[in-house]
Design brief:
The chain has 656 residues and is α+β, with helices and mostly antiparallel strands. It contains 23 helices and 13 strands. Helix 4 runs antiparallel to helix 7 and helix 10 packs antiparallel against helix 11.
Length: 656
């Protein structure tokens, strides 16, 4: 006679009951650092359609319940078909786990099945021991289920740091609170089966008090978990969903207090439904919140050319280009106030005698000056190599480059075609299908604008990984001019490059993951002509007036106020060192201790103003000084460019 499965056998699997057991899997899905979606789906189906039903069926086959059990008010009597079906489901689950998920998940699942059988089987029968049975359920349906779910969802083991210890404890306390409550109506039936449950030991009122204590401990652990990850607000979102559970628990407790008959199957199932609906909804919301793509900044690396010059050397080069005593005096005064000790250049001429020059005309007065074409040739000769020098310092770049989806190049000191982006793709052998874009001719704050574009890309694509490269060769635009604009620019600017990765998933290259929180901008039209430049036959003509610091000082505070930002909210500052007075006035305007701007002053002193990459040099120094106690702290970055434009970026140290 062919083997067949009757309707009652399927009913005893209590497949809908898996809905009550789904919250921990959904919680794990919402918190997993990485998600392998195909494995996650298979894990969910295997656990909820095979493992849990098989466990329910085996328990029903052994106990042969005549009174109501979880999910069935009037259960039918089991047959041998149910036993064989549970064996088939367990075998299928094991095979599918090995084939479609991973070995760790399969091992965890086999251990869970073994614990479930030991709990119900006549040979071991852990359920007849009130404390051993309780602890088995609490561990395997709590912490172990969360661990097993993470293994299936992420493809790897849960990292056992303090935060994850808290979440594992919270999961077990959650089950510790729920499980005795599900047994409160089964005291008489359990006694007939020779089973003494913890709920029976506690009594009706004691069970409710015990449940309240366990859920309180569960909440404490969840609070410690979320706050240790810098996500305290998520804890309060969870509490909102727990409100209906608490209300019905209180109502039911009051009913049982007055009449012990209210501790019945129907009220228990009502409790189960309310709890399951609220908790499943809560964790689905957490999945939506946590799986919405964000953007994280990581692995800023920098590079400078091989030629480094003391500020005195560069000042002397400038002095030798004129015999006018007044002009020479002005050059010395400006140089002494820059706060710069060293700058770098791709040009080898600045410490040589005129007859050794390779770029400038070989005479002291530097005439005729190099043409725009000559300057662009020098740019093309050095820009790609300097960019590569920064990029190739990114940790594990040979591996990371395979994951790069977008490339953004930034420069305002040179242009050529095919362009820096194509040159980098070719020399670094990047994926030819990478999406690329360029931010050109936008000045010192262009890095922030590029990061704004990278942020938008990552927030719209969960798998995005954007390589941003800022390269400037400011020194190739040295001009033999002596007006106030050029007294400033010739004494400020140097060469440099910075490269960084922005991705949708956090990476731990620093003490903490660095989440990009947002951007704010302002154009000061009254400074339109105070910072600008134009192309000319001999290179870039610079306008850089001494009024720029005044404009920034007078407008930075109103700007922040207008967009709801407060300086007191930020502990760390990465401000573009446009010049010493700009930095001084920025600090004064926001009433900041200059110690907070130490990285800015350091970069200005050691590199000068390199235009777009400069703020990234500062930010790199800020991030490398992060400490464990800085988790949750915010970082404020700002840069200033033509127009006059102010671009700001807000970041936060978060748990990866």
């Amino acid at each position: 006679m062919p083997f067949s499965i009757d309707r009652n056998t399927v009913k005893l699997l209590r497949i809908p009951f898996s809905f009550f057991l789904a919250p921990l899997f959904l919680f794990a899905y919402s918190q997993a650092e990485t998600v392998v979606h195909r494995q996650a789906l298979w894990s969910f189906l295997i656990i909820h359609l095979l493992v849990y039903p098989a466990s329910n069926g085996y328990n029903s086959y052994i106990d042969r319940d005549e009174d109501s059990i979880g999910g069935l008010e009037k259960p039918p009597l089991p047959t041998i078909q149910l036993f064989y079906l549970t064996i088939f489901l367990d075998t299928a689950a094991t095979v599918l786990a090995l084939v479609f998920v991973n070995t760790l998940f399969a091992i965890c699942m086999v251990l869970y099945i073994a614990a479930s059988r030991a709990y119900s089987s006549k040979q071991v029968r852990l359920k007849k021991y009130p404390f051993a049975g309780f602890l088995t359920v609490v561990f395997f349906q709590g912490a172990f289920t969360y661990y097993m779910s993470i293994a299936g969802i992420s493809g790897g083991a849960l990292r056992m740091d303090m935060a994850n210890v808290f979440v594992l404890l919270g999961c077990s306390f959650q089950i510790a609170g729920a499980y005795p409550l599900t047994q409160v109506y089964q005291h008489e039936q359990d006694l007939r089966d020779g089973v003494v449950t913890l709920s029976y030991k506690l009594g009706y009122i004691g069970t409710f008090v015990f449940t309240a204590c366990m859920f309180l401990l569960c909440n404490v652990c969840y609070y410690l978990y979320f706050t240790s990850k810098g996500l305290g607000m998520i804890f309060f979102i969870v509490q909102v969903f727990f409100v209906p559970i608490v209300i019905w628990f209180g109502v039911w407790f009051s009913l049982v207090w007055k009449d012990r008959r209210q501790a019945n199957f129907r009220n228990t199932m009502r409790m189960n439904w309310i709890a399951a609906i609220c908790m499943n909804s809560c964790f689905i919301v957490l999945i939506i919140i946590n799986r919405i793509p964000l953007s994280y900044l990581s692995a800023i690396e920098t590079a400078v050319p091989e030629y480094g010059y003391a500020q005195e050397t560069l000042t002397d080069f400038y002095l030798r280009s004129t015999d006018d005593l007044t002009t020479r005096r002005k050059i010395k005064i400006v140089a002494s106030k820059t706060g710069i000790e060293k700058r770098y250049s791709v040009i080898a001429d600045f410490d040589k005698s005129p007859e050794e020059y390779t770029f400038f005309n070989r005479n002291a007065d530097l005439l005729p000056e190099p043409t725009l074409s000559q300057r662009m040739q020098l740019y093309q000769q050095h820009a790609t190599a300097l960019s590569r020098k920064a990029i190739e310092q990114i940790p594990d770049f040979e591996y990371t480059k395979k994951q790069i989806t977008h490339l953004i190049t930034v420069t305002c000191t040179g242009l050529f075609a095919p362009g820096l982006d194509v040159e980098l793709m070719r020399e670094l052998r990047l994926n030819p299908s990478i999406e690329r874009s360029s931010v050109n001719f936008m000045g010192c704050n262009a890095a922030v604008l590029a990061l704004k574009n990278a942020d938008a890309i990552c927030r719209s694509n969960v798998n995005a990984k954007v390589l941003v490269v800022c390269t400037e060769l400011c020194s190739i635009h040295f001009q033999k001019r002596y007006n106030d604009d050029y007294l400033l620019s010739n004494m400020l600017f140097g060469d440099g490059a910075a490269a960084l990765i922005v991705s949708s998933q956090p990476e731990m290259h620093y003490q903490h993951a660095v989440k990009i929180d947002g951007f704010k901008s302002m154009i000061l039209h009254n400074g339109y002509s105070d910072m600008a430049w134009q192309l000319s036959e001999t290179g870039f003509i610079m306008n850089l007036s001494s009024y720029v610091p005044d404009l920034i000082r007078d407008n930075i505070q109103p700007m922040l106020r207008s967009v709801g930002l407060k300086a007191d909210d930020y502990r760390h500052w990465a401000v573009h060192p446009g010049g010493k007075r700009i930095v001084d006035d920025f600090a004064a305007a926001l009433e900041l201790d200059k110690c907070l701007l130490a990285p800015t002053y350091n970069v200005l002193r050691n590199y000068g103003n390199m235009s777009s990459p400069t703020v990234l040099f500062v930010l790199k120094e800020v991030l490398e000084k992060a400490k464990s106690e800085h988790l949750g702290n915010r970082v404020f970055a700002a840069a200033f460019g033509p127009g006059l434009s102010i671009e700001t970026m807000q970041l936060q140290y978060v748990q990866a």
